[in-house]
Amino acid sequence: MDANIQKRNALLAQKVIKGLESRNMTGYYAEDRQAALKQALALIPEGSSVTMGGAMSAHEIGLVEALKSGSYNFIDRDAYADRRAAMLAAYDADVFLSSVNAMTEDGELVNIDGNANRVSAIAQGPKKVVFIVGMNKVCSDLDGAMKRARNVAAPINAQRFGLSTPCAKTGACMNCKSPDTICCQFLITRYSKHKDRIHVILVNDSLGF
Length: 209
Prior knowledge:
By secondary structure, the chain is of the alpha/beta class. Helix content is 38%, strand content 21%. Strand 5 and strand 6 (109-113) form a beta hairpin.
């Protein structure tokens, strides 16, 4: 990565971490994917029950593979015959893994969901939530974060799921009410009621969508 971009990311991350702290959340900055993996595992004690939403970023840093091969109770919803049972198990998990569709420089987290299993678990249930967030997802303000979530993350996810939504065809949000829409629930996490529950690892890389 270009040294100037790396310096900019490191400086911006400190601003984001201060914003998270003001919102009763904890932030960390990882110089690369390997450092992000090390930080994430430090937050997840061995023996913990761990599950996740659709977080590509957790896969990209090698976290999912490490949990599956380590001494953890990883609840893999894709391995469950009853997918709903796996989703419900998430609410009683020790740790829930996620990313964000976007976040602000001041520490607000923005997520959009179709089935709402991910956003509902972020809001309530699991004892700890660990976010893996590439610096590409940090936006200047809430308006920018919402626009990114709707016009970048949502169209790409609709395309990779093979859905027939207007955004999958145009690449931009059309504010649709399509049966295939994945923009059913919007969650803005602006403050954590419970200290030490939400942890955000900012990674000096482009991760996820």
